Amino acid sequence: ADGFPAADTNRAGQIATGFSWKFYAVCDLDTAARFDGLSTVKISVPGKQNTPLSATVEEVTEDKDNGIAKIVLQCQTISAEVLGLGCETVQVDLKTYEGIRIDKAALHIVNGQRGVYVKYGNLQRFLKITTLYENDSYILVPEDGKLGSANEVRLYDEIIVQGTNLEDGKLL
What we know:
By secondary structure, the protein is mainly beta. The protein folds into two domains: 15-93, Elongation Factor Tu (Ef-tu), domain 3 (Beta Barrel); 100-160, no CATH class. It has helices at 29-33, 80-83, and strands at 21-28, 40-45, 49-63, 68-75, 91-93, 100-103, 108-110, 113-120, 123-128, 133-134, 138-141, 158-160. The longest helix has 5 residues, at 29-33. The relative contact order is 0.14. The model has no long low-confidence stretch (mean pLDDT 86).
C-alpha cells in the first residue's frame, strides 16, 4: 500500500499510492479569521486551473505582532495542471451556494414577508422567498420552491423585476 521502488524488486517503474500536496499562504488577521471553524475549502488558480479542488485546512498560525497569518491547505487531488504550477495566486472558496439567482430590484416586502412578483398567465402573483445568499445586486434562493412553503419560487418562474401597481392576483 505504500508503494515500492523499482530497484528493490527488479521491476521497471514504481507503484505510487496516495498523493497530497500543500498550499501555503500569508494573509492579514481579518482574512485568517474567516477560516475559523472551517475544515474544508475549494481552491483554484484562475486562468491556469479553473476547476475547484477540495482541500483541507491543515493549519492557521497567527502572528499578532506583525498582523499576519500563515495558512496551510492540503489537497489530495493531482492533475497535469497542478503539477505545472509554481508560485501562484489562488482563489479560495470558503463556502459555495447553489440556487436560483434573482435580481435584487425584484425584491418586495409585503406584510412583513420578503418575496417577488411572478407572472402567471395574465396575473401577477406574490411569492415568498427564503434567502440563501444576498449581495448588492442579486439574491440567491433555493431551487426546491413549493407553494405554501417558506420559499415558493421555482426554476423557470417569470419574475417581474420592475413595474408599477404590483399587487397579488392583479391583472398585468
